[in-house]
Amino acid sequence: MRKLVAALVLFVVALAPVKAFEPFTVEDIRLEGLRRIAPGTVFNYLPITTNDQVDQQLAAEAVRALYDTGFFQDVELQRDGNVLIVNLVERPSVAEIEIEGNNAIATDPLLQAMRDSGLAEGETFNRALLDGIERELRRQYFSQGRYDVDIETTVSPLERNRVAIRIDIDEGRTARIRDIHFVGNEAFSDSELEDVFSLGPRPWYLPFSSRDQYSREALSGDLESLRSFYMNRGYADFSLTSSQVSLTPDRSGIYVTVNVDEGRQYELGDIRIVGETVVDREELRQSLELASGSMFSQEQVTAGSNTIRDRLSEEGYAFANINPVPDINREAGTVDLTYYVDPGSRVYVRRINISGNYRTDDEVIRREMRQMERGWYSSENIDRSRQRLNQLGFFDSVEIETPRVPGENDQVDVNVNVTEGLSGSLQAGIGYGSGQGLLLNFSVAQDNILGTGDRINLALNNSEVSSLYRLTYTDRYYNVDGLTRHFNASLRETDAREARLSDYGVRSGELDVGFSVPLNEEDSVRLDVGYQDLRLNLGDDAPQFMFDFTDEFGEQYQNYKTEVSWTRNTLDRRVFPTRGAKQSLGLEVSVPGSDLEYYKASYSHNRFFPLSDDLSLSLRGRVGYGEGLGETSRLPFFENFFAGGINSVRGYQSSSLGRRVEGDPVGGNLRTIANAELYFPVPFIDSDAVRFSTFVDAGQVYDTRRTTFDSGELRYSSGLAFTWMSPLGALTMSLAEPLNDGPEDETERFQFSLGQFF
User: Fold this and answer.
1) Do 297 and 257 lie in a common domain?
2) Which terminus of the chain is more solvent-facing, meaning fewer CB atoms within 10 Å of its CB: N or C?
3) Which CATH number characterizes residue 720's domain?
């Protein structure tokens, strides 16, 4: 009945503008009233042409067709002899749209939404569209908890059949959550369940918290979190009965009620893996972190599916379907779990496509890829390729996707997209280090010469403590086996007096060549040989043991040095890693035939543990030991180890720990340092180039000719640190509190370093 009435109304409306006339043959058509719309547009929609026989029905259809275009607010057909006259009144066009008062919803997205709906400057004005946009806008504000929003639209006519639209918005205040009440919970208290929610009343101790600002999307997410909370604690029958949101009369407060049916808690029963598993079932079963008799957890069930899927993908089955099916035994209170495995077809890589590398050669990227073209797909090789590319340090980001080849079920492409970083620099600047004083530096460095991956560096650096002039060249992938070749030429002058050490200076020139040999994906061995020309300059206030040393060995030495080291690197990235480890073991020997014969051994281990998406823990330990060889009865004092400062034990002055002679630190032949550091993002700053940390440091240096290692002599400190990878180098600051400083220790609670010094 309603459809019939609507049809009659439409028919009457369509006939109203048609003047009654007898049927006639149209010899010509004349358009009246057009201002903005082209005649060709009207003729395109008008279902009447010359020589057509026009009657009352065809005229009504013509009026309806022109109305349906939305261009006209009035259409009338008239007859002048055999000429059809079409009188048109155009709808106004939108001259401008102005929105005021909106803060919670940005103007540009709002205008874009209106444009997508057909309401924009230059378009024909349609009041129905404007009303619909107003309703949708009000709904958006309601979803944000702004229930007292007031929206007023004004349409002002302008000359030349145009209108101006103004939307005034009074967003009002977001309704605050005053209480969340749970009904039906027995296993967990209200306070425990409230901790699951991101929404809730604002804590008194967090006056600027937005926790109490209601939004429909946030509540939906919290309800899913509540479901996961129960399902991960054995409540396999848990269900959300309902949730209600009620407003206070003044629309400023919200009360949320959540009704739950907990059910009972279940344990895991039998765990089976069935289907075509490809690899040994027992191997898959052992890889699952699930055990019969343990509490049922949906999260662990899903993790088991991912474990099986990842293992199959290592064998080339990239699109394996793993379907876990729980079978609830309510009488026994157990859940039997069956994983149905469908590996699908083994997938091969058709080609590797590289993009984004406008500076780096394709070859540099391809030689780091462990996934090969025409080989079967391996998720392990894909992950390893991503890690190796990140370790290069050439790219700000590395993204690898593996889309299916269209029309093929057993082939994928590997698309590698990189974002080039700053691999070259020309630096001339001033910095300051609390351990080195004023830093003047000039350096030209290119870590990716002409896109080849090779590195060259020319550095001219000067500080109050030392000056360095150095030229280095690293030839990565010197041969097809991945051998890396290193060259180094340097001249260093060190004034120990300026470092608050003893009264002496050192001038040292070195020439070195070395090779790094990769043993596998993570391990490498490096061998360096070099020549050193070193000269001592003792001051009048130098300690007596230094004069004794120069009396025995002189003040000028020519040494031939060999250094061998082993490194294992599993870090996920080169700058600011969050997981993995890096450890190295090195031995430096001044070989027989040198004026001074000695050795220095060192070991370091730094491991990162990701605690969450934003938190990571670093544990680092370092130990170094040196001694004389042959006729050199002891380690030369200028080769001693030192500790203290921003790079070792913060809170103590640089190189100040350990034995002192005449009040000055002289270092020792044994050094031990340990650091524990918790890294977290900088509040209110969304940048990968900065981070905060809280730390605990420990360390000391010993002279083993006079005393043995004594853990009671270790110095400790704790505090906060900040690091920013600035264009001038790393800016590092720390505020540390020494925990057990002695009477002779020199403390320095605030320390910082700006710029790099090699």
Assistant:
1) no
2) N
3) 2.40.160.50
